[in-house]
Fold these 2 entries.
Entry 1:
Amino acid sequence: MLNVDEQSYREKVYEIVRQIPVGKIMTYGQIADILGEGYTARTVGYVMNAASTQKVPWQRVINSQGGCSTSKMTTPHNLQQSLLEEEGVIFKNEKCDVKTYRWTPEGYEEEDDQPNLFG
DNA sequence: AACTTGACGAGGG
DNA sequence: CCCCTCGCCAAGT
């Protein structure tokens, strides 16, 4: 049994990434927000950099713009995008609709505090 | 221990 | 839409 609290900094990130279902995505900032305690979009991105060699669906983590930050980096052109397209994610101009594909792990539902304007 | 680098994000021009 | 600035925090030098 591995308690999240016993996991290393990176393992906590992997733990969430492993839960992302096929055809869905999460953003770095979203993951950082869920983990809270000292995590930021930037550090999550740092962790994901080394995730390509881990047992995690790293391709399902993209930036808040709906694009793959790996497009113009080390990885072959748009490997990440290709992998997501194979999962059913539709890309338009190298970007997908984050609103449509974003996923949130159960138990970490986004806080939707909408003021009761019409009380 | 100080400085620099990032698969980032929100804002402003 | 593109470019720049600031904030964020782990790792590498």
Note: The radius of gyration of chain A is 15 Å.
Entry 2:
Amino acid sequence: MNSATILVIDDEVQIRKLLQITLESNDYSVTQAATAKEGMITAANHPPDLILLDLGLPDDSGHHVLQQLREWYTKPIIILSVQSSEEDIVKALDNGANDYLVKPFRTGELLARIRSAIRGNLSEENDPVIDCGSLQIDLSARIVKKNNEIIKLTTTEYALLCMFVKNEGKVLTHHYLLREIWGPGYINQSQYLRVFIAQLRKKIEDDANRPVHIVTESGVGYRFVAT
Amino acid sequence: MNSATILVIDDEVQIRKLLQITLESNDYSVTQAATAKEGMITAANHPPDLILLDLGLPDDSGHHVLQQLREWYTKPIIILSVQSSEEDIVKALDNGANDYLVKPFRTGELLARIRSAIRGNLSEENDPVIDCGSLQIDLSARIVKKNNEIIKLTTTEYALLCMFVKNEGKVLTHHYLLREIWGPGYINQSQYLRVFIAQLRKKIEDDANRPVHIVTESGVGYRFVAT
DNA sequence: TTTTTCTTTATAAAATCTTTATACACTTGG
DNA sequence: CCAAGTGTATAAAGATTTTATAAAGAAAAA
């Protein structure tokens, strides 16, 4: 999910359409403007994360629009223009444009330049954290917290917990768990499972004697419940 | 008065000469390197305000050099290349390049793009100093201080620390660290890692016997915590 | 050369896994 | 009701793996 918003200011409807399709299929949220005036108003009302600006607008000079935008807009502006003269490029860049692409442009390159411009400008993304009441699991950081304190889990304990979390609510049989975590040769070692279930409960349950998260389904296996 | 320093990494002597003259007449201070290796060393010893990198170096792939630089170098990198394929451009930009100019380029445009890159960098932030209690790490200056005293770290030790700092809080597996720092052929040399972790701890931890920053996750890897 | 850094080997310590032992809960048939 | 059988929980000892550290030899840099 990207959800960065991009404002396209261009008078050619086919270009706007192309950009909208291209950008939206890359998870950007797109708004459009066909004139300089419309562009300025849209940018002011809903400041986007990046602006794609055509220099050849009908109602105002593109360079002037750029200057006006830069009075207050600090995020990236990329120029798209049929003008390839050095004079135009230098002027646009010195007026505060972050990049300048000559039309017709290659969409892959445009997307890469957009990524480059947005990079670092975006707020830091957090990892997907699974929340189970007092229990929090960050799979990408391999961190498990209980009441906001980090719990140390061994490799096997963590593998077990992951199996449970990824199959929340489902009953996992002894055989299944043993095969997935220890390997196919261990499907009869139910005792292993009991030992590690006990250890896991001691670490993640508030009261290990009355487990809430890891419920035993006698004769079948165990089930993990989030709340 | 400009006084921003620019490092030119290019194997063609006439290009280097041209750039030197052009840049110096625009009040930039220029350093040069003819090979990837030389470029990396120069960049590390005297980090410039901007790097102009040619992708077609004789001793290493330009994309690889770019990746290596981006491990620690946070200021702008502009690619100069005879390669004009979309694939090369997209790859370079996604590897952390700020801009990409195809040779032969127009000097006026290059200067404008340099101004644009430096401008955006200055407005954003200064030296990104990471503060971890008694420990301070300046990635762009490659300086590590503990209790305000500079600590000498070897190349490998520093690379390790960078990996940790950039992934603060996350568990980095042995395989990952070995692959990133020593290369794919070393993923089984866990002992290397242990030796260097011990050395790093001796240098950055208050009490190496009770490490606070570099926490070992037995059977998995290590985790860096800033506190 | 001398110095620094990296690689390799050796060994002690720590952490984890496996195994054994025992206790508990629950069901079922006498 | 009890006693035997089945399935589960937990502690703790023993075995194994993993880790920490020193130190010596090799390679690279100054």
Note: Chain A has two domains: 5-118, 129-224.
